[in-house]
Each structure stands twice: as structure tokens, then as C-alpha cells.
Specification:
Low-confidence stretches: 4-13, 15-28
Radius of gyration: 31 Å
Strand content: 15-25%
Oligomer: single chain
Shape: flat
Length: 401
């Protein structure tokens, strides 16, 4: 907490209401008999897969700093925090930085990034914080202030100049975003309870496949011998469907699964579908059996997820990180092109169209493929098809020599 103490603010604080939940719900309530929170929500397979899908995808995207000059986007020198978010920790990579921001958004509904500057007011460290340790207050004039609670019981308050706050979904005058886990804890609680019930069903289930009824009483040894004898003749793949012969008035009766137990699988599937709906993830990306089975539909749904699921989340993170870039015309941008280029041939075909129609040069295409430019001046020239020109343009007809 020594670094945080240097950032302490002396402003008067007022609590900001945390209207996270629908009417009638309070934090910590149990749903379906199971307490669901951010610590155990990822034990639900669909939640873990959804959060990991978003976090891994965004963390792996190339990110750069750009400036818009007369409508043209040009790259600028990358700030230090992009490649070294926490300089004192070389294991804290840019991938880890973006991964933690995304996972915080999807579990808590908020991401908080502490900004540390040097004597020249340049950013030297960007540290994502545990959202549960940050409280949003209001200062004397209504400005947001952020109280950071330490593990040792101490706390420090910083201003908005020292904190980047990215909410996932906020409404009205609420500064803090809704927590998907706590706001949808009924759905997630039911999914957790179903998982636990299924585990106990197979662990402690006492439903035999069948029973043998015999007239009269058998002692323990006789019952064991009858069970073992019947099993030796009819258990296993090579003995299945053999005709059983019972004597002495014995009768074999098949046991069927209860309807309630058969619906367990349907309830498990409902949980996956509901969580996928909450996070906006296509079912086939969660390895859900039977969802979007055809290749064409999978491809179309995947592109739709990039536009309507991943795209808005990327834009929200870009908007929050914008404060870490100096200049009115500079901005942070993730490159989504790598997700839209499924095959090498399709990528090369698009390059050929761009090259032959004159809106990309050879060197620009080589730059997109991380290749060195052609030193010949023609590498930066733009082509134009001979049969295409401007209206009224005079085209010289070559003459034979």
C-alpha cells in the first residue's frame, strides 16, 4: 500500500448507491439453494468457457496507437504501458493486462486500472485492480472518487485522473456497472445446483438396472451367489441380449429411470443455453452438441458474434483505454482483421482485388503480412485496370511501331 498512500486524496467522500440488482434481491442471497459469487461462478462450465473465450480472444488481438491525420489513420510511437503495463513485474505481459481487464468486466461488470505517473507526468504503470476492492464515492462537487481497500485493512482514495473505470453495463445515474454474476445469480445458481445434483446422482445413486424376485427368503450368501451367477452370464458387451432362464419361480424385472432424473440432462442443457444468452456467445463456441450443426450456419453465426458480441466489447475497452493516450487525435485500436481472415487463399484473393483495383500498393500489402517493403519505386505505385478510367478521360491508343 506504500504506492497507494502517495496517491491519497483528502477530498470529502460520499457513498454512491450500488443499485446492481433487480427489486427484491440483495447481494449474498442464495439462488436454488446455492450461493453464487465471482469466486465460484467460473466453476460453472458455461461461465468459464464464455469468460475465457472473450478474454483470450481480446488479449490475443494486436493493439496499437494511431493518429488520424486529415482522415487518414497512421501509426504513432507506442506508449510504454502497452508493452510493459507493470515494469517491475516482467511476467505481467500485455496479454495478461488485457486478459484481466476483460475477465473483470465479464465477472464483476467493472474494470478499474490504476494509473501511476512519473515526475514528467508520463504514464509509467497501468495496474488492473480487483474490482471488489474498489468503491466509487463522490466528492464535494460530485466528481467521482475511488476508494481502494487493501488486504491489511487500510484504504486510499484516488481521483479520476489516477483511475480508469470501464463499466460493462450501467444505467441511469449509477456509476458502477451491473455484475453479470450477481445480477443473474438465479440462473447461475440453478446451473450450479443442477451440476451438484448430477454429481450426487452418479456418486450416491442407488438405482439398479434390474432386480430378481424369488419366492421365499434368501440369506445373504444365497442372494450374493444368485447375483454373481446372473452377472457372469449376462453382464458385458459379449453377453448382452442373451436369453435368460430363471427357475424356481424367479422373476427378473427391469428398472427404469425416474422422469425427474431423465430431465436432469435437459436442465443441464438449459443452463448452458441461458448462460450463453447472458454473455452473447454462440452455442457452438461453447462446444454445445447439436447447436448450429451445418458449416454455413456456424460460419455465419461466428461472423455475427464478431460484430454483435465481441465487437461492442472491444469498442468499450478501446474507449476506456483512450484516456491513456496523449493527444486529441490519437487513439487506441485493436486489429480485428486476424479474426476475419480464416484462410490464406481468401486473404490472398482479397489482396489481389485490392492491388488490381488500385487502392492498395504492393508495399502496403507486404506490410499487412509483416514483410519488408520492395525497394523499387514501383512497390509503392498504385495500379489501374486498362479498361477502367474516368468519364471524359482521353485514353491514348498504342500504335504499332
Amino acid at each position: 500500500m506504500s504506492i497507494l498512500r502517495k496517491l491519497a486524496s483528502q477530498a470529502e467522500l460520499r457513498d454512491v448507491p450500488r443499485n446492481w440488482f433487480a427489486a427484491g434481491y440483495e447481494p449474498g442471497n442464495r439462488a436454488a439453494g446455492v450461493a453464487v459469487n465471482q469466486d465460484n461462478a467460473t466453476s460453472i462450465g458455461a461461465v468459464y468457457a464464455s469468460v475465457k473465450l472473450y478474454a483470450d480472444t481480446i488479449a490475443a488481438l494486436p493493439m496499437g496507437a494511431y493518429i488520424r491525420d486529415r482522415g487518414v489513420r497512421r501509426p504513432v510511437t507506442r506508449p510504454r504501458w502497452m508493452d510493459h503495463p507493470i515494469p517491475n513485474n516482467p511476467n505481467y505481459t500485455p496479454f495478461e493486462f488485457r486478459h484481466r481487464i476483460t475477465s473483470s468486466l465479464l465477472l464483476d461488470g467493472n474494470a478499474f486500472i490504476l494509473i501511476l505517473r512519473d515526475d514528467n507526468d508520463e504514464i509509467v504503470e497501468t495496474r488492473p485492480l480487483d474490482p471488489r476492492k474498489v468503491e466509487i464515492k463522490r466528492g464535494e462537487f460530485g466528481e467521482p472518487l475511488y476508494r481502494i481497500n487493501g488486504t491489511d485493512g487500510q484504504h486510499v482514495t484516488v481521483t479520476a485522473e489516477q483511475m480508469v473505470h470501464i463499466p460493462l453495463f450501467a444505467y441511469g445515474e449509477n456509476d458502477r456497472g451491473l455484475s453479470p454474476v450477481e445480477h443473474h445469480r438465479v440462473t447461475m445458481g440453478l446451473a450450479t445446483a443442477t451440476q451438484l445434483y448430477g454429481a450426487k446422482f452418479y456418486e450416491q445413486g442407488a438405482s439398479p438396472s434390474g432386480i430378481i424376485k424369488v419366492p421365499g427368503e434368501l440369506n445373504a450368501e444365497q442372494a450374493s451367489q444368485l447375483r454373481e451367477s446372473f452377472g457372469r452370464k449376462h453382464e458385458g458387451i459379449d453377453k448382452m441380449h442373451k436369453v435368460a432362464v430363471l427357475t424356481g419361480g424367479a422373476d427378473f424385472q427391469m428398472m427404469s429411470m425416474k422422469i425427474a432424473d431423465m430431465e436432469l440432462v435437459e436442465t443441464l442443457h438449459w443452463g448452458v443455453e441461458s448462460i450463453a444468452r447472458i454473455y452473447g456467445v454462440p452455442l457452438h463456441l461453447l462446444q454445445y452438441p447439436g447447436g448450429n450443426s451445418s458449416y454455413a450456419s456456424v460460419e455465419a453465426v461466428g461472423i455475427e458474434w464478431l460484430r454483435l458480441g465481441l465487437g461492442p466489447l472491444v469498442a468499450r475497452i478501446e474507449s476506456g483505454l483512450q484516456r491513456l493516450i496523449v493527444g486529441d487525435t490519437t487513439f487506441v485500436k485493436f486489429n480485428l482483421d486476424s479474426l476475419l481472415r480464416p484462410t490464406t487463399r481468401e486473404r490472398y484473393d482479397s489482396y489481389a482485388i485490392a492491388l488490381n483495383n488500385g487502392w492498395l500498393s504492393l508495399n502496403e500489402i507486404r506490410a499487412l503480412e509483416d514483410r519488408s517493403p520492395i525497394t523499387d519505386p514501383e512497390g509503392s505505385d498504385f495500379r489501374k485496370p486498362l479498361n477502367i478510367g474516368y468519364i471524359g478521360e482521353v485514353v491514348e491508343t498504342p500504335t504499332e511501331g
